[in-house]
Amino acid sequence: MKVSLKWLNDYVDIRLGAEQIAEKLTMAGLEVTGIQTLGGTWERIEVGEVVAVNPHPNADRLRLATVELGAGQVTVVCGAPNIAPGQRVPFAGIGARLIDGRTGEAVSLKAAKIRGVVSEGMVCSEKELGISDNHEEILVLPPEAPVGAALSDYLGDVVLDLDVTPNRPDCLSVIGIAREIAALTGESLRLPEIHYEESAESIDSFASVEIAEPELCLRYCASLLTGIKVGSSPGWLQQRLSSCGMRPINNVVDVTNYVMLEYGQPLHAFDFHELRGGQMVVRRARQGETITTLDEVQRTLNTDILVIADKERAVAIAGIMGGSGSEVTAATDTILIESASFDQAAVRGGSNQLRVQTEASVRFDKGLNSDLPLPPLRRATQLLLELAGGKGARGIIDVYPGKSEPQFLSLTAREVERISGLQVSAAETIGTLRALGFECKESDSDSQIFVSVPYWRSDIKCSADLVEEVVRTMGYEKIPITRLSAQLPRQRAKLSPAQRRSDLRDSLRDMLTGFGFQEVLTYSLVSLEKLERLSPRRKLEAAPLSVANPMSREQEALRTSLRAGLLATVAHNRRSGTAGMRLFEIGKVFSSRGKDLPDEREMVCALLTGARSEMSWHGEGEVLDFFDAKGTVENMMNRFGSKAIFEAADDETFSAGRGASIVIEDERVGVVGEVHPSVAQAFELSGSVCLVEIDVEKLVTKITGAKQYRPILRFPGATRDMALVLDDHVSYRSVEDIIRSTLLVTQVILFDVYRGEQVPEGKKSFAVRIVYQSPSHTLTDEEVDRNQQQMLDRLRQELGATLRAST
């Protein structure tokens, strides 16, 4: 929102400099992102009048303009096509600092001989003055511009550029900003006085309004003016629109734009003779209905878009843009002015569908109060009668189906202190709120302050909002730090499930990158053929969710797993010459739940393949295998302070006997394994490819982040190696569980698995190293032997194990 300090001065006395005003507004929550000074460098530039324009003797496209400056006349060479006698123009003398129209750099004007004619000055364009990028034509000033006056005195201004937050649509207006400045500086706000004469004929004899969609149009107001004359706006009006970044068009359009900037309420003027039947209907567009808008674009509408229609057709898109069929032209003599309250979501939806954003739609999108339309409509009617002549029909059409009761809130000075820590009296609270336009009344009995919320403050919903108004206006810097810190919560906030998942996601990402993995991102949409490659049978267990109108076969279904995307990424990188790879992805997978919304689960998937280390003089590196993947999982769980066990998994993506379920607290949270050769081949991969897949949403419920302290034992340990012969179906996990449960065992290491001649058929041998250690003394051989014998007895009884050898 750009706003001129000259314009603001009409409503509030500004006694501070632009920098100080910007600081106060920013500290009160209305950030000023820029300050533009117009005329600060306009030295030796004054207002002149063109008294004659003659041809250049040596150039067809150049002319000689004689300019009256009050103290004398100067003739200069000018190439602008729009220069004409009688115009008031900005004239720059020798030594003036201007913007070069071609390079955009600041230069000092010097006398020059142009095609044999000496030119000692220049008639300036907007670009040369730094106002805009328009360099093709000279700037023509209003006829009342005083000849000989310094241009900086006449046209100079300071423009503040504010970044208005979405909850403050009232500050998308000059009056709204002026009200803030008045409250912050202790000045009084002056609003325009609105009064005008009306003709004897009632507006109801000319026009009528029907709201067919009262939930989408809460209020529709209209006034009618007859006998007007469309023409150029006066200079002051053009200047104010230009300072706010709007292009002047004609007096009718300029007044509607001016009042929109003044009050924050969009308005629209229709050529009344182009409205068939004199009836205005606010309705939904018909499916396929078309309208040509003011930008000369034909737009096809649907029933989600709200329109203003006459008896036969749509004449405007509500809250967004008018139609060219009812546009005000030079021939227009009767206009109907619209000021309405449209539903915020309806305007936003229509704007997004049509991909059109206007100054009007931006304001409706912020949510304007339904009590706002009437004052701006009366103001626009007043200005148009002053600037375009004519007569105003008696009365105003005001259809108001969405009328609501005024909002009242209660507040106490103690509540202000409780929430903010700022000690204020009831009188200070009332004074601050009244300065912002709130009506306040103090109770005689219980110090309650009853506050009536003004219609322009649609963001005020509860007493806490009133506290914010008091504090930000008085100054956040006045909040005592010690008092505020004493009121801060002393308990640690409990994290929501979504925050816990987000924290876990960050932790997984940090861990995996620390382990040497690189993160990748793949598309959520995949081809059915790619998902089928994950099974050696090339068959899906469950049909994925298909896209109704896929852009290509590669994006025809939502992924049910991250595996396919990662395997395809590995294959692509391997074709590019990359050898050893560790990649991972964190993302969502989707599964159908019938007529309900699909189930979305967040997963982490990691792939390892190729050499474990880069080539070096030590020799060729070993290949990454299942145990690297399993070790990755174990390291992750150790850092989370959780214990994971691995059980045989029946997952057809993995080779038989080379896949395991990751189990925490008796619940499967993921899988780890070596990809089946036929699956790897389907993705054009060869060699060992290992995969880890973990359900993030299950994992988050299994980890607490708490870690238990275990001191380093002071006394030396005793080591025993032994080889156990067991049936081939017995898992190492069951053996390890028994060994670890033995008294004084602190470490178990499997260092060999053997099947062969020394072991009977159907049997296997596990070679393990066991470390015994006591926290209180050095163990004797007798103590170690006794505990080991108890362990062997359990292994024999429960698993049928026999001792092959021990040392």
Nutshell version of this structure?
The chain has 807 residues and is α+β, with helices and mostly antiparallel strands. The protein is built from 22 helices and 41 strands. Strand 20 and strand 21 form a beta hairpin.
Descriptive overview:
A hairpin with a 3-residue loop joins strand 21 and strand 22 (321-322). The strands form 11 sheets. A 7-stranded mixed β-sheet has the order 29-32-33-37-36-35-34, with helices on both faces. Strands 13, 15, 16, 23, 24 and 25 form a 6-stranded mixed β-sheet that branches. Strands 5-4-3-6-11 form a 5-stranded antiparallel β-sheet. The longest helix is centred in the last third of the chain and has 19 residues, at 781-799. It is elongated, with a radius of gyration of 40 Å. With 807 residues, the chain is an alpha+beta fold. The relative contact order is 0.06.
